[in-house]
Amino acid sequence: MTIPLPPSGAGTDPLLTTADDAPGVSLWRAAWRRLRRNPTAIVGAVIVAAFILVALLAPLLTPYEPGSARWSGQVTPTSVPGPSPEHLLGLDRFGSDLFTQLVYGARQSLVYGVVATAIGLTAGTALGTLAGGAASVGGRIGGWVDNAVMRLVDIMLSVPSLLLAVSIAAVLGQNPYAVMIAIGVAQVPIFARLLRGSMLSQGRSDYVLAAEALGLRKRRIVMGHVLPNSLGPTVVQATLNLAVAIIEVAALSFLGLGQPDPAVAEWGRMLVAAQDRFEAAPQLALLPGGAIAITALGFTLFGEALREALDPRSRR
Amino acid sequence: MLRFALRRLALMVPVLVGLSILLFAWVRALPGDPARALLGQRATPEGIARVNEVYGFNEPIVQQYLKYVQALLGGDFGRSIKTGQPVLDSFVEKFPGTVELGVTALLLAVVIGVPMGYYAARHQGRFLDTFIVSGSLLGVVTPVFFLAILLKLVFANWLDLLPTSLRQDPRIDATHITNFYVLDGLLTREYDAAWDALVHLVLPSVALATIPLAIIVRITRAAVAEVLNEDYVRTAESKGLAGHVVSRRHVLRNALLPVVTTIGLQAGLLLSGAVLTETVFAWNGIGKFLFEAIGQRDYPVLQGYILFIAIIYALINLVVDMAYGVIDPRVRVS
Amino acid sequence: MTGAHDQPLLSVRDLSVRFGLKGQRQVAAVDEVSLDIWPGQHVALVGESGSGKSVTSLAVMGLLPDRGVEVGGEVLYRGEDLLTKSPKEMAGLRGSEIAMVFQDPMTSLNPVITVGVQLTEVLLRHLQVSKAEARERAVELLGRVGIPDPARRLREYPHQLSGGMRQRVLIAIALACEPKLLIADEPTTALDVTIQAQVLEVLKDLVADTDAALLMITHDLGVVAGLCDDVNVMYSGRIVESTNRNRLFANPRHPYTGGLLASIPRLDSPRGAPLTPIPGSPTQTLPWTSACAFAPRCGNRVEACTERAPALEATGDRDLRCFNPLADADLTGAAR
Asked: Where is the ABC transmembrane type-1 domain (chain A) (predicted)?
C-alpha cells in the first residue's frame, strides 16, 4: 500500500475522502433504503400486500358468491357446520360459506378504508395547506384564513373521531357511501392540523430564511419548498389512518350504521351476527375479528416503520 | 392558574357555538323534511305538526337557531322522540354508569400501563420488553368490540367466572343515591351490592381499558427511554443517588409528562369505546343509550349526545392541561 | 490511610472502552489510555470531539451504560480498582469522593425539580445532615459559586436561570460534598464567551478552596493554559502526547498537538500571521491497529504512518506516539 506523500492539498488527499462526501441522496430514497432494511417494515408490508391480494383476487380464491345463504338449511340455532371439504372454514350463521365471506370482507374493508382515508387525506391536506400556507405567507388576510380554518378544525376535533363519524353516518342515512364519507370526514381535522403544524415548523427553518433573504417570493417558497418538505408526516399518518379506518368501518357496522346491503360481506357485521351463535361456533367471531386486527396491525407496523425511515431521529 | 382556566373556558365558547350551528344544520340536513326525520317512519300528520310547532321549523332559519340556542342555555337538549323524556334527564341518569366504567378503565390503564412501559424501557431489547411491545401493538389494533366479545366468550361463556351484562344483578335490591353503583353500595353499607357492582365492572372495564393501556405502555416506554438518555439523569447518577431516587424523582417525574398529556386524548377513546363496550355488555350508560338512539334514528338524542360529549371532552382536556401545568413548572410560569 | 502522597489519587492503567454488542463488530472508543492524577493536581485531557475523552471520564465515574459496552484495564482510585466495584459501592463514591461537572448546563439539570432539591439531595445522600442543615449549606454553596440571592434561587426551577447560572449550580452540586477528585467535562464549552471566563474562575477558586484534584476535559488549549499542570492529548481514542503544560506549549512534538496549537491565536505570533487549521475532520481516521489514526490529516506523514501502529513511548521529557515527530519549536511545519 503506497500513498502519495505529501499530498498537494487536503481536498485531493485520497485518505481524506469519506462516505460523507458521497453524492447527496434524496430524503425519500434514503427513507426507502432504511425501510428495506427494517424487519418491522417488511412484516407490515407482507401483511398489507397479502390483504390487498386477497381483496383483489377474491373471486379467484373461492368458488362461491358472497352472502348467498345457499346452505341455510344446514344451520340450526344450536349448531353451525364447521370445516368440511366443500367449505374450508364451514358456514356462517346465515348459511353462507365462511371463507368466502372473509375473503370478500377483505375487499370491502380495502375499498372502504382506502376511499375513507383518501377523502380524509385530500380534504385534510387541502385545508392544512390553506391554513399552513396562509399562516406562512402571513399578513392580515393570511392570519384570518388560518384562523378560520383552524377554528373549523377545532370544532371537528371537539367530538371524539369515532363519534364524529357516527353522527355524520347517521345524517347521511344508510347507503354505501355514508360510511366512507363519515370516516373520511372524521379524519380531515387530523390531517389538516398535522400538515399545518409541519408547514409552520418547516417555515421557521433556516433554508426558508435563506430563500427569503435571497428575495424569493413567499408564496413560491411556501408552495415550492415548505409544502413538499412537510408532506412526510402526512403520508405516515395516512398509512396509520388506514388501520384506524378499517377498524372504524367495522365499528360503524357494529353500531348498525354500516353498509345496508346484507348480501355484501363485511367483517364488522359478521362479528355482530356471530354474537348469538357464540358458544356453538366461536370461529364466527374469532375469524373476522382476527382479520380486522391483523390487517390493522399490518398498516400500523408499516406506518411506524415509514415514520422511522423518514425521520431517523425518532427511532428508539 | 385561575386565569389560565378562565381563558381556556373562554376559548371553548366559539368551538361550542360552532358545534351548535353544525348540529343545528345537521338536523335540517336529514333526508326528507326535518319533522318527518325526527319522527321517523311512523310519523302522523298531527305529530309532524306538533314537532314543527315545538322546533319551530316553519319560522325563519335564524330565529330557529336562536330558539335552539336559547333552549340549550336553559338546559333543554331536546326530547327523545321515542320516550318523550328530556334528553338531558337521561344523560344525568345514565352518565354515572359511563363515568364509573371509564374511570375504572383509565385507572387500570394507568396503574398497569405505566409500570409496564417503565419496565420495558429499562430492559430494552430483552425478552419481556419485546413481549410487552408486541402485546401493546396488538392492544392498539384489536377493535374494542371484538375484544369485548372475546372476553365475554372466554370468561363468561367458557369459564363461567364473571357476569357479562348489566351493571348489577337486578335481584339485588340495591339503593341508588349517586348512580355510581359501587359507591352507592359503600355509602349505604350494602357491601354485597357494592361487591356485585364491582364484579360486573371487571369485564367491561378490562375491554375498555385495553387500547388506552396499550397506548400508555407505548408512550411511557418511549418517554422513559428518552429521559434515560437525558443529561440530567446522568447528573443525578453522578451524584451517587440511590437507584430508586433516580428512577422516581428524575426519570419518572419527567417521563410522565407526555403520559399525562395523552390522558386527555384517552378520554376521547374512552368515550367512543364506551359506546361499543356498553353495547356488548348491556351496560346502562350513555354509550348504550346512544346505540339505542342510533338504532331508532332518535335524532334529538343523537344531537344532544354529541353536544354533551363535546362539553365533557373539552372539560376533561381542560383539567388535563391544568394538571400538566401543575407538574411541569416550565408551563406554569409562561 | 496510606500516605496520601505515596500514590496517585487516580491512576488509569491501559483503559479501553469498546462499544457494540457481543458477536457484532466492536468499536474501540478508548484504547491504551493511561494517566495519573496526584492529590490536588490539575490534569488536562485534550482532544477534538469524538476523541474519546468524555468516554474516558464516564468510565472513571462508572457511568457508561451497562449493556453494549466492554471496559478493559484498570481505574485505580487510591489503589482500588473502580472497575471491579459493585454499582452500590460506586454510587457511594460518586458525588462524595469523585464528582463531575458536565458540558451542557441547559440539559444537565432536571427541569421539573427545584434547584434546591437538586442541590440538597447530594448533601443528604452523602453527609449526615438534617434537611435544614442541608438547606443552609446549599444557600452557602450557591453564594460561593457567585449566585446572588441564593435563598430565593433555591426555590426556583432550572429554566428560570441563565446558562451561566446553571453551570454555577452544577459546579456547586459537584463540589457540595468536597470530593477529592473533580472531573470537568468541557464545563464552559456551551456558555457564551463572556461567561466562560467567569465560570472558569469560579471553578478554579472552588477547586483550590477544597483542595480537590481536577481532571479537565477540554478541546480548548486556552483553558488548559490557565488551569492545568499536566496535559494529555488524545486523538481517536488514544493518547498521542503526554507531558507537562509548559513543555507542551513551548515545544509540541506530536503533529496533532502542533496543529492544535497552530490553530489558536497567540500573543507572541507575528501580527497578521494567519491561523492554520488542521485539514480534514476527526471522522477521517485510520484504524490504530494498523496505522496512525492521524495520518490522513498529518503534514509530517511518512511511509511508516500508514503501515504500522505507532506505540506510546517515553522520549525524554514526555510520552509520544509518533514516527516522525516535530522538531524542537517547529510550529510552522505542524500542519502545513
From this structure: 106-303
Shortest Cα distance, chain B CAs vs residue C269, angstroms:
40
User: What is the per-residue pLDDT for B55?
Assistant: 67
Do A159 and B313 count as a contact with CB atoms less than 8 A apart? yes
Cα–Cα distance between C14 and C74 in angstroms, integer? 7
Beta carbons of C112 and B328 less than 8 Å apart: yes
> Cβ–Cβ of B238/C110 closer than 8 Å?
no
What mean pLDDT value characterizes chain C? 87
Q: For position A7, what pLDDT does the model report?
A: 35
Mutation site, B122, B232, B238, interface C, largest C CB count within 10 A: B238
**Max CA pair span of chain B:** 83
Give the Cα separation of B88 and B80 in Å (integer): 10
Q: What is the mean pLDDT of chain B?
A: 84
The rounded distance, in Å, linking the Cα atoms of B206 and B193 is 20
Tens of pLDDT along C72-119? 999 999 989 999 999 899 999 999 999 999 988 889 999 999 999 999
Chain B interface, best mutation among C24, C96, C110, C171, by max B CB count within 10 A: C110
Confidence of residue C332 (pLDDT cuts 50, 70, 90): very low
Tell me the CATH number for domain A106-314. Answer: 1.10.3720.10
For chain A, what are the domain ranges?
A: 106-314
Given a cut of 70, whether residue A13 has pLDDT beyond it is no
- What is the distance in angstroms between the Cα of B155 and the nearest Cα belonging to chain A? 12
Q: Place A296 in a pLDDT band, splitting at 50, 70 and 90.
A: very high
CB atoms within 10 A of CB B32: 10
Return the top range by mean pLDDT from C235-249, C270-284, C313-327. Answer: C235-249
What domains does chain C contain, in order, with CATH numbers?
A: 10-228 (3.40.50.300), 235-265+284-335 (no CATH)
Residues of chain C in contact with residue B236, where contact means CB-CB under 8 angstroms, are 110
Shortest CA distance from B269: residue in chain A? A160
For the cut 60, the answer to whether the pLDDT of residue A106 exceeds it is: yes
- C290 interface with A at CB cutoff 8 Å: no
CB contact under 8 A, A1 and C306: yes
State the Cα angle at C213 between C210 and C219, rounded to 5°: 120
- B 53-82 residues inside an 8 A Cβ radius of A: none
Q: Which chains touch A (3 or more CB pairs under 8 A)?
A: B, C
What does the alpha-carbon distance between residue B124 and residue A10 come to, in Å, rounded to a whole number?
A: 43
Q: How far apart are CA A184 and CA A195, in angstroms?
A: 16
pLDDT at A136 over 90: no
Question: Domains (ranges, CATH) in chain B?
Answer: 16-73 (no CATH), 88-285+310-331 (1.10.3720.10)
B141: chain A residues, CB-CB within 8 Å: 243, 247, 293-294, 296-297, 300
**ipTM of predicted complex:** 0.85
Q: List the beta strands (DSSP E) in B38-140.
A: none
DSSP alpha helices (H): ranges in chain C? 53-61, 87-93, 115-126, 131-144, 150-154, 163-175, 193-210, 221-227, 245-250, 255-262
Q: Which residue type is seen at B301?
A: V
Contact A222, A203 (CB under 8 A): yes
Residues of A in contact with C303 (CB under 8 A): 2, 5
pLDDT of amino acid B296: 79
Residue among B234, B240, B242 whose CB faces C96 most closely: B240
Cβ of C111 within 8 Å of Cβ of B235? The answer is no
Residue C23 pLDDT more than 70? Answer: no
**Count of C-beta atoms within a 10 Å radius of residue B12:** 18
Residues contacting A278, CB < 8 A, separation 6+: A285, B149, B152, B153, B157
Q: Give the residue with greater pLDDT, C268 vs C14.
A: C14
Residue range B206-213: mean pLDDT, rounded: 93
